[in-house]
Design a protein that fits this description.
The chain is an alpha/beta fold. Among the domains are: about 90 residues, no CATH class; about 40 residues; about 110 residues, Nucleotidyltransferase, domain 5, CATH 3.30.420; about 110 residues, no CATH class. About 45% of the residues lie in helices and about 15% in strands. Helix 6 crosses helix 14 and helix 16 packs antiparallel against helix 17. The longest helix has 25 residues. InterPro entries: Transpos_ISL3, Transposase_DDE, Transposase_Znf. This is Mobile element protein.
């Protein structure tokens, strides 16, 4: 048989209801403690001598769609312990029920804390008002900060990476426990000294997964020399692909010579292409000036100081990475190109009709984008000698040389064949990158050293030298099951939390909302 519901069951444990009234807007419940005495906060001795009473107003969980206010009849006791410095003290309650000076019960404070963790300031305050828990956004954030700093179990396997406070201006560091799959710490910057200081206090760490940057690698080597460093596999494969794109950029003059496009006829260019071609001519003048100074023995820093260009641009020019003429921007059709290719092969070649079908699938672009794609596709199938005179961008050439031949049009196939026949060094670089990707996927550790020696004599020598310098971490990435993918996922979540707070949250609030939520 179930027990009858008593009014005292609705208030926190340790209290009994004296009176309860409803004034229409809220429910006011008068309660008092059920215990006879209380322990002195100074000496801990129990006292039952009541000196006086006063009324304490406390918020509690809502009841029947109305907010609840508790009027607690609090007592003041007299401490009779001779050596105690305090003579009068207010009775104390269990910290899990009501803490000193609190305006909310512990169970209501827990709800406020969870709302602040989940939604932040203003959204949580708006939602709390609907739950009949009136609380301001400042109070919510104050509760989150006060209850932050949850202890974490000492990790053995961590992932470390940087994240952007503001892109290209300010960065922080996130550290994740890869075994428990949760973030454990945010650092205010990505300086190696900051990471080294934190890692120095965690000597139990045995494996550190990180990105390809050298800053974290140096910090780990100094703070945890016994730990195994693991380079992130995704970054390794992305860096290899980027190395091939750089190789194509270095070889653009040879590419244009291979397909017979060393001379550009400005009369045949569109208005947008003419602007790009004029920019290319200006870049060529800058490139010639910087290359001439480099041949005279000037350093990169000196060239940057004399010309006013950044060291990054000077470095790209010396590496031959600024010889591209036409740079094609990514189209809004990129995500829909596989579907358009299927429709084109099936015989549906009317641009307007393709746009109507694509719009029904959720495409937000205009009809002109689709009709221009259809026109370019129609022209690309007319492969003649003149079609080879147009040289795509380096990024496009890199894509055409690495995708399957069955996905290329006739003109694209002829273009790739001309490049492969005229620039065999690019074919070698492509094969080396593909071999590196296969080595990562199949965990073929024995092939790493021969690959490095072969790649050092190719167009991707810079990437090969980087792999050789970071050989231990790359070897661990190939053979180990750990990677930094979890950390990248937590960075995505961190960005969501930061944007929910309009990017104005300090690191303690971000730490609380990202780390303490677990």
């Amino acid at each position: 048989m179930q027990n009858a519901l008593k009014p005292s069951n609705l208030v926190p444990a340790g209290f009994e209801v004296v009176n309860a009234v409803t004034d229409g807007a809220a429910t006011v419940v008068t309660v008092r403690a059920t215990n006879r005495g209380s322990a002195c906060p100074c000496c801990g001795s129990l006292s039952e001598r009541v000196r006086s009473r006063y009324c304490r107003r406390v918020g509690d969980l809502p009841l029947a769609g109305r907010p609840v206010r508790l009027l607690v009849s609090a007592r003041r006791f007299q401490c009779d312990f001779v050596s105690c410095k305090r003579r009068i003290f207010t009775e104390r309650y269990d910290s899990a029920i009501l803490v000193p000076w609190a305006r909310r019960t512990a169970r209501l404070d827990y709800v406020v804390h969870q709302l602040g963790l989940a939604l932040g300031g203003r959204p949580a305050a708006s939602f709390a008002s609907r739950l009949m828990v009136p609380v301001s956004n400042d109070t919510l954030l104050r509760v989150v900060r006060r209850r932050s700093g949850k202890a974490f179990a000492p990790p053995s396997v961590i992932g470390i990476d940087d994240w952007a406070w503001r892109r290209n201006q300010r960065y922080g560091t996130i550290i994740c426990d890869l075994e428990r799959r949760r973030p454990i710490r945010l650092l205010p910057d990505r300086e190696p000294a900051t990471a080294e200081a934190w890692l120095g206090g965690q000597p139990q760490i045995t494996i550190v997964a990180r990105d390809r940057g050298g800053g974290y690698g140096g910090a780990v080597a100094k703070a945890l020399p016994q730990a195994t460093q693991v380079a992130d596999r995704w970054h390794l494969m992305e860096n290899a692909s980027q190395a091939f794109r750089d190789a194509v950029r270095k070889s653009m003059r040879q590419v244009r010579a291979a397909i017979g496009a060393t001379v550009i006829n400005a009369d045949l260019l569109t208005s947008a292409e003419r602007l790009q071609y004029e920019g290319y001519l200006r870049r060529e003048d800058t490139n010639a000036t910087i290359l001439k100074q480099s041949e005279s023995g000037a350093s990169i820093r000196e060239i940057s100081r004399v010309t006013g260009h950044s060291r990054g641009m000077v470095r790209k020019i010396l590496r031959g990475q600024r010889s591209d003429i036409f740079r094609v921007r990514e189209s809004s059709l990129e995500l829909h190109l596989p579907w358009l290719d299927e429709q084109w092969v099936a015989g549906h070649r009317n641009g307007a009709e393709l746009w109507r079908r694509l719009k029904a699938l959720g495409f937000q672009g205009s009809m002109r984008v689709v009709t221009e794609w259809a026109t370019r596709r129609r022209r690309s199938e007319k492969a003649d000698a003149e079609s080879l005179q147009r040289v795509p961008s380096a990024r496009t050439i890199a894509r055409l040389m690495t995708v399957g031949r069955d996905t290329l049009s006739k003109a694209e196939t002829l273009l790739v064949a001309a490049i492969e026949g005229g620039v065999p060094s690019l074919v070698e670089a492509r094969d080396l990158v593909a071999k590196f990707h296969t080595m990562i996927r199949k965990k073929a550790m024995a092939e790493l050293d021969p690959w490095v020696e072969q790649a050092k004599a190719s167009l991707i020598t810079s990437f090969a030298n980087g792999v050789a310098r970071d050989r231990a971490a790359v070897s661990a990435a190939i053979s180990s099951s750990w990677s930094n993918g979890q950390t990248e996922g937590q960075i995505t979540k961190l960005k969501l939390v930061k944007r929910q707070m309009y990017g104005r949250a300090k690191i303690d609030l971000l730490q609380a909302r990202l780390v303490d939520v677990y």
